Amino acid sequence: SIVTSPPTPRAGSRLAQTSPALLGAASFACADVLAKVVLNDGADVLTLSAIRGAISIAILYGWLRLNPRPDFPPRARWISLGLGVLFAGNVFLLFTAFATVPVPIAILTYFVYPLLTGLAAAATGLEKITWRGALAAIAAFLGLMLMIGAHPTTLATVGILGALAAACCRVVMLLVTRATLQGTDALQITWYSIVSSSVLFMAAALVARDWQPPATMSGWVALIV
User: Fold this and answer.
1) pTM over cut 0.70
2) C-alpha span between 160 and 96 (Å, rounded)
3) DSSP secondary structure string, 14-73?
4) pLDDT (tens digit, 9 = 90+) per residue, 167-195?
5) Residues in contact with 196: Cβ distance below 8 Å, sequence separation at least 6, in sequence order
6) Which residues, other chains included, contact 169 with Cβ-Cβ below 8 Å and sequence gap of 6+?
7) Are the C-beta atoms of 95 and 164 separated by less than 8 Å?
């Protein structure tokens, strides 16, 4: 018999597999920094969130019109709308953290959510956690404590708590999606979540009569980008 080794992935296929993750990470990083620019330019968190939601709705609506999607079950639609409420909390709390502490500190604090997700998934039986994963989680939490402790006089408690609360919202979103929306069209999940979160922000801005956009053109450019 002839034993053959598995084919080596081509460079093009590896790039196709990793480029969405790299693009997503780069977009996330740029959006966070630009959000800080908008906040420093005089905008407040609610106005930033509402305008951001309106732009997201327009982009996703165009995407859905150009790319027809499969049928979306009513149950999945309602779950996705509920996820949008959690997403609104996630966005608002994270932007609140940006407004009060440096962006790198807020993001590093927020990114405890993968660890919290793994622990919560293990506790609820959705996933299993290995001893290596447990050690990695402990090391990450210790690193977070060292990072926060290195800036005891400059960090606002509300910013750290906001980032941690945003992480908790993200954990619940991920667990609910994992448990109830497996195999469901991701673009439509995103669409309904964005719609409900944006409607919440716009309604809150109208009720509070809150309208505090950027003060300069550069702030508006950062917001739109």
Assistant:
1) yes
2) 10
3) HHHHHHHHHHHHHHHHHHHHHHHHHHHTT--HHHHHHHHHHHHHHHHHHHHHHS------
4) 999 999 989 998 899 888 989 999 999 99
5) 80, 81, 82, 83, 84, 85, 87, 88
6) 86, 87, 89, 90, 93
7) no
